Amino acid sequence: MPERGEHTRAEILSQPACWEQCLRELEESGQLLAARERFAHGSEWLFVGCGSSYYIALSAAAMWTAVTGMRARAIPASEVLLFPDLLPASPKACVPVLISRSGRTSEVVRAAEHFEKERHLRTLAVTCSPGQALEKAASCTLCLPAADEQSTVMTRSFTAMLLGLQALAAAVANRAAFSKALHKLPRLMAPALNGMLLKMTALAAREFADAVFLGQGPFYGLACEAGLKLQEMSCSYAQVFHTLEFRHGPKSVAERQVLVAFLLSESGYDAELGVLEEIKGLGATTLVIANAAGQRARAAADVYIELAFDLPEFARLAAYAVPGQMLGLATGLKKNLDPDQPRHLARVVMLQEENGKPQHAAF
Question: In this predicted structure, what is the pLDDT of residue 340?
């Protein structure tokens, strides 16, 4: 009988090896080259997903613009289906990217069919499961089967699919240096895992009435994912805001029993540091995740994780997702829950239909 959280823990710790394998297989299989050639016309990219896959989309869209210089945005698949008229007219140069670990998520598959059949746009699927409905609906696929998990909650599939999209951005923009930096990330991340896990386990031993995750730019999507991991694996309450938006009302919750986690960027470091110091001054318990925290950030942090990776800022994104996964795991175990099998959740959300109308969603 496996121990509670055994699979999730193994999958979190397997990420550096998984990243290395996925990046290698994407190149050796020719998938990156095929996608680059298939969508060479693309000048606007639309990233679509549900749940964790939508948070990949949020981070990927910000990263895409920074790396390629092309316009990009993210949208939940449900918005494509329920409010299609609110989407701007899609030029032929628009490339919808549909993200689903299982390749079977109902809303994502239907969104792909909508773009392909009704808008006559060729789509790119990003998945960890070959041969599923999403791959069949899309014109081209990036598939990372090595990243799939046994657990319900997405961990390594999240970071691997994000890395896959980063590798594609490097290929599309002919950014060889960025691609090389992505390949360095697994070797830098591996020795940092045990220290991260110890810190997150110690932090989870405390009692918090609320948790808040903050980030800007591509780090906002990662903050959303961290909050979701805590909710999914430990049934805890979590909120997410853009870092500077936390000042505009939400900071009223700040107190010692509230954990406020900052995913600090380099691009907005000084402004975000100001928020960190302000919230620490209001009495909240603070967690800082940064590449180079600096003396002031460390002084304002109750707990800090400093990556110190000699890589471009946007090549390090996947690493920022890992502490939130570990915190969710450790908090769930502390509450005597099984993070491998979260309450009310299933690995795939599929809608059962009657007369063409959704009747039930299995979460």
Answer: 84
Number of domains forming the structure of the chain: 2
Provide the domain limits for residue 224: 189-334
Specify the pLDDT at position 342: 73
238-242 and 258-263 strand pairing: unpaired
Q: DSSP 3-state assignment of 211? A: strand
Summarize the confidence of residues 233-257 as an average pLDDT. Answer: 95
Q: Confirm if 329 and 314 have CB atoms less than 8 A apart.
A: no
The answer, yes or no, to whether residue 345 has pLDDT greater than 80, is: no
**Do the bridges between strand 357-361 and strand 351-354 make them parallel or antiparallel, or are there none, so unpaired?**
antiparallel
One domain for residues 97 and 224: no
**Has residue 37 been placed in a domain?**
yes
Distance CA(160)–CA(149), nearest Å, equals 11
pLDDT at site 16: 98
d(CA 34, CA 172): 11
| Predicted pLDDT of residue 80 | 96
